[in-house]
Design a protein that fits this description.
It contains 9 helices and 8 strands. It is an alpha/beta fold and 225 residues long. The structure holds cytidine-5'-monophosphate. The site of cytidine-5'-monophosphate (C5P) has 14 residues, from helix 2, helix 4 and helix 8.
Length: 225
């Protein structure tokens, strides 16, 4: 049994899981895994390498071998085989490619192993779609964040504009709905809460309110109260 605690924070795009996970990791002094970044990087690697999504052997090799390095500031800067792809992975194409590779079992299996490697002392906060249900089923705390599609599109819009990436709200809303559909209807690891997850609707909640609720559960489960 792995004794290193994991806090799993799952949910759809724009539910706030990235922001909440980063704050909770900081408060607990735990490592952070934004699993979406791995899917995004694989999507970009597929494009750059001209790999066909049907070519399972090449796709698997790429997922296992691509060299990913996170910058000192954590997840804000990331390189793929030495090239800075921090902005590219956040573009519309980056999102769509991530969702496409995420629907392929071989890609998920290859990334599964890479995700397990992030579990190191003193603990890990992992955010994604299937952290609690599939990758870390023994997580000490499992949270599933939701919010209305409109609210999530609005948040994504602000995030992208803040990073200097062009975006329009209607396009984002449409793209988000398509991605939600693909993520929740795929056969492998569909987007849905783990059976033992706590579901939190963040539509009308501030970041701090959500962080406090998650921290209360962490303190409870990890005996840090
Ligand atoms: O979380 P983020 O929006 O960065 O994820 C991008 C895409 O990667 C998602 O739409 C989803 O298709 C895929 N993904 C996944 N499983 C995860 C994390 C992300 O399938 N654990």
């Amino acid at each position: 049994m792995n004794k290193i605690p994991v806090i799993a924070i799952d949910g759809p795009s724009g539910s706030g899981k990235g922001t909440i996970a980063a704050k909770v990791a900081e408060k607990l002094g735990f490592l952070l895994l934004d699993s979406g970044v791995l899917y995004r990087i694989l999507g970009i690697a597929v494009l750059k390498g001209g790999v066909h999504l049907e070519d399972i052997d090449r796709l698997t090799a790429l997922a296992l071998q691509m060299d990913i390095e996170f910058g000192p500031s954590g997840l804000d800067s990331v390189t793929l085989d030495g090239e800075d792809v921090s902005l590219e992975i956040r573009t519309d194409i980056g999102s769509q490619m991530a969702s496409k590779v995420g629907a392929i079992p071989a890609a998920r299996n290859a990334l599964f192993k890479r995700q397990l490697a992030f579990r190191k002392p003193p603990g890990l906060v992992a955010d994604g779609r299937d952290m609690g249900a599939v990758v870390f089923p023994d997580a000490a705390v499992k949270i599933f964040l939701t919010a209305s599609a409109e609210e999530r599109a609005q948040r994504r819009y602000k995030q992208l504009i803040g990073k200097g990436i062009d975006a329009t709200l209607p396009d984002l809303l449409q793209e988000l709905r398509e991605r939600d559909k693909r993520d929740s209807q795929r056969e492998i690891s569909p987007l849905k809460p783990a059976e033992d997850a706590t579901i939190l609707d963040t539509t009308h909640q501030s970041i701090d309110e959500v962080v406090n609720q998650v921290m209360a559960q962490c303190n409870n489960e990890l005996g840090m109260a």
